[in-house]
């Protein structure tokens, strides 16, 4: 692909060999993070090129699906951006989306959302396997909230209970930057006895790190001996990776978003999913 930017920021996209897609089942691999808005628009242009060149079908592989956190509306005038993204991809010719630990789907499997067929793969097995190697002994597996319970339940793990504070505009000192939408953690509750144990806390994503930091604080208060933090998608906004590293034995994520804490490759899972198509 030839992807460039005009001086004013508009995207230029060219698929030089687009004709080769004619009559074929095309598979497009792309990351939609970071710079999600321009990455999404550029992908729409690539999809159009494939369609104009008469690809028979298009499978889109997107390791992390942006906007997956807003599939509901809470306040009047909000829209479900996750739905709009999926509908738009379908309208632009995507017949099948393959992604990982998609926030609103909350389990591994096949789905239809916004009229789009989605295969949601989970990296929980690989993450838990790696954490077991690091722990080298018994491991207590936990998720920081019930939404991520699907990641831990088949491994006998349990979930904390996260109570979110309301959304507010950041005011610098409060956590979020000025003008940024910021949602703090109200409190986190835990029933499990983690005293003297090595604990893995696993989530679908670590964004500002506030959920993970609160969960770490919680298990440490409960007397955990060692804490390992992991997630499928690592954004590590601001200095959250540094802060987590200071508090934990180990922090790691997959390479669905490439970060310095990416230790697990999603490639084998993509290959397996494509083989099964
Ligand atoms: C929320 O339900 C998600 O599963 C994550 O726990 C959350 O999005 C992580 O965000 P942050 O790192 O900003 O707390």
Fold and architecture overview:
- This protein is globular.
- Strands 9-8-12-13-14-15 form a six-stranded parallel β-sheet, sandwiched between helices.
- The protein is of the alpha/beta class and 277 residues long.
- The chain is built from seven helices and 15 strands.
- Helix 5 (210-221) runs parallel beside helix 6 (240-247).
- Helix content is 26%, strand content 31%.
- The structure holds ribose-5-phosphate.
- Ribose-5-phosphate is lined by residues 144-145, 147-148, 203-212.
Any descriptors?
six-stranded parallel beta sheet, five-stranded mixed beta sheet, single chain, globular, alpha/beta, 277 residues, binds ribose-5-phosphate
| Basic shape | globular
Ligand types: ribose-5-phosphate
Task: Give start-end ranges of low-pLDDT stretches.
Answer: 171-175
Helix content: 25-40%
Q: How is the largest sheet built, in terms of strand order?
A: 9-8-12-13-14-15
Largest sheet, strands/sense/barrel = 6 strands, parallel
**What's the number of extended β-strand segments?**
15
**What does the oligomeric state look like here?**
single chain
Tally of separate helices: 7
